[in-house]
Design goal:
This protein is an alpha+beta fold. The protein has one domain: GMP Synthetase, Chain A, domain 3 (2-Layer Sandwich). It contains two helices and three strands. The chain has helices at residues 38-46, 74-84; strands at 7-17, 21-30, 57-60. α1 (38-46) links the parallel β2 (21-30) and β3 (57-60). The longest helix has 11 residues, at 74-84. The radius of gyration is 13 Å and the shape is globular.
Amino acid sequence: MYTHPVVSEVAVIALPDAKWIEAVTAVVVVKAGCTLTGEDLIAHARGHLAPFKVPKRIVFVDELPRNTAGELLKRELRARLARES
């Protein structure tokens, strides 16, 4: 996912899903001034990843949650996105 030219940051998490129990979800921050669709990013991922690793969903956010040391807070991200879906 990082190899896409307009992706600034990405986190991959599992979110609850009615069909799959959990679905691989990519949470993406796009570089300033750029646009990207979920379909474009999934097509890019299909060319670089094994089929089971390709995300089922793409969620675009302005920034990823981090602690004071700069580490990604995946639990917080999962909780926030699970509430929204």
